[in-house]
Amino acid sequence: MNILGQEPPDDRISIPIDWSQTVPPEVEARLRQRFTDLRSRVVARRRETWWLGLGHGFSRRRWVAAMGGAVAVVVLTILWSSAHSNAWAQVVKRMQSKPWIHARIVGREGEFWISSSQGIVAVRHPGFAEFDSRGANLKLRYRVADRTLIHLPMTSLDEDVLRQIEAIFGGLFQDKAGIDPSTSLEQLVKQQTVEVEADGKRWVDFQLTFRQIDGGRERVTVYRVDPETRLPKFRIDRQEFADDPQMRLELDYPESGPADVFALGVPRDAKVVDYVPTPELTQILAGMRAGREAMDTYSGLIVQGSSRSHWSEASTVWRVWRNGKKWRIEQSEADIPGPLRREMLGKDNPPRPKNDVDPRAWWREAAKTIRFYPVLVSDGQTSYRFKVEVTPKRLTTKNLKVLKYEIESVAPDYIAIPANDGGPTAQLLPEYVGRPPLGIPAEGCHVSVDPLPIRGPKDAILVSVQDTRPPSSAWRAWVDPRRGYLAIRYELETGRDGKGNPQNQVQVIEQVAQSPRGIWYPRLVRTASGIPIGEDIANHPSGLIRYFLDFESIPNEVFATPSLIQPQQAEARTPTKPRTRAQEVQHARSMRNLSIIAKAMYAYQTEHQHFPPATLVGPDGKTTYSWRVALLPNLGFKALFDGYKLTEPWDSPNNLKILAQMPDVYRADESGAGTNAAYFVVTGQGTLFPAGRALDLAQIRDGAADTLLVVEAKRAIPWTKSEDLTYDAKGLLPPLGGFDPEGFCAAFADASSRFIERAKFNDDTLRAWITPSGGEDVKRQD
């Protein structure tokens, strides 16, 4: 199971973008991919599972900010990438003399200004305004709807925009050394100059083709230059989706621009909401960030087990190396010491140690007998995520697994934490587990600092965050300044119990150590769920994470791409028909929803020691209700669950009121209409959800990564009704998908979300995925 807190690429899991309904379609279409790229740097760490703490989510930056920042990055990166041609050199020389760049969208309301010399990016739209100033280190956002002016500090992404502008206009084109403006996640792969006639005039078109470095789709941008002024007059973006109109920006170069946010039309009597951190909070956040960034070079083992098992038994073992931005993470296979292996093989290998054995030394020796495969590798500039195909699917004493490695995605190094900390999360690596990003400062996140909290660890400062953005949530960290700002305890609220008390995912550092440079890090971490605020978790069933680190130099060869993989970019998915923006949005939404549902399934298993049955029986012993209802508390809808009467059918007058309050996580589209579910489990004999039974992870013998957990399907079934997809081994496959002609989205039992292209997977593979213990030896068709 991948618990590294990393987000898969966009074709595997969604990025939950909160687009405003006022977004012009053509702006959304062009900015969507760029915005996703920028945000991948913020949140590319957030695919954690329950025992490491479920992250709330990174800051939902509105498309307002994307227009002011992302557009600037795109425009200026294009100019920089093309500046080495003679023609572009002349254009750039003219632009260097202009103090302001102004752009408006042709045919739509909305405009923005950029001044690199003053460090200003300003945006104006009928629904909002934004003014970013480096000099004041302040981002000002005005919401027209409620006349509210938001104060936020500048983030690293905002600084990237301005630094790039300065690099371009501050001397890059004058061949000054040591200036690197590149922050883009795409490469210029083609450029050409064409003379055209349009609007009764001759123009010079600079046509630039870009490709994402992770092998994503290409895009074409045209800069239409007036040959008389030698300045770009228009920027034309070719359509990306089949249903997108062409977007056109008109550029001009005024001598002056907006001096402050009020010059954008913001009323001076607007309500002000200040999210700028206090000096005390700023010091805490800086201390936590410094501890993450200053960690010594290290290698070692990370062993995940349970408080119910012996320390020599584990669910997963990780091998890790890190030297700054160079890092490598490998995951164990199924041959680690543990009860499941003894059950499968009938023996203890390696044997359980005696009580006087040093755990650190014992695990070092045990690791020599464990096979590992790479999951994430970074050479300091580029990160490689790997997918592994394992054949055969079932482990026996005579039938050992054969691994096939493939690069799943390629991206710039995304382990670094940006200025806004990307949202509350817990990572696998010790410096991040010990100092989890808190997602602040961010709009909508209200923070309180208590230097003497009544509950929780002693001598720690309590930082509490309440996120008012829907769905509202809260998280807390008890930070110990004496130990390098380690978060000794970290909590995330996941709902409320029957008495209305908050229930939490909890992480507590029980043992600490110091690196040779004096950086504190955790040695033993205990995790649990359903624990009241500040309560001791030592007496509760919990997960345990042990860190065995060595602080020695690491040869560069460790961070090289594995030799059995050719370090080439993955090919972009080529659909049989042009894809529409609506299809892309629906696909992203489903991947996000399935990821959330899968995590909730794991939280349910933690509480009940098994996955929820497809159909549950109420306290009256006869009335049934759906797993989708049972999962509501784990999804953060405890009040909705409490309002559902388990002794009444799903279509009773009371329960129909609950039906009408359908959570969006069960919808595959953004219409907000209808009450039909979009996500189902597959039921039937031999499936993970057999009738009248509830299975757990230990009963998945074919591998969690090869067993379907929840699937997407377009059916007319109300979400509260206990009806799913029925599988018959001798019959046809159940109707999977229906939203996308190419395939369907699904969550697997390892909590991963994938898009299943039907052209790449035959029926035998799908049947093998449906059965958790069928023992099939089926190779994927990709």
Q: Can you describe what's shown?
A:
With 782 residues, the chain is α+β, with helices and mostly antiparallel strands. Helix content is 19%, strand content 29%. It is built from 13 helices and 33 strands. The strands form five sheets. Strands 18-17-16-15-14-13-25-24-23-22-21-20-19 form a 13-stranded antiparallel β-sheet, with helices on both faces. Strands 7-8-9-10-11-1-2-3-4-5-6-12 form a twelve-stranded mixed β-sheet. A four-stranded antiparallel β-sheet has the order 28-30-32-33. A hairpin with a 4-residue loop joins strand 2 and strand 3. The longest helix is centred in the C-terminal third of the chain and has 28 residues. The protein is globular and about 80 Å long. 45% of the residues are buried. The N terminus is likely disordered.
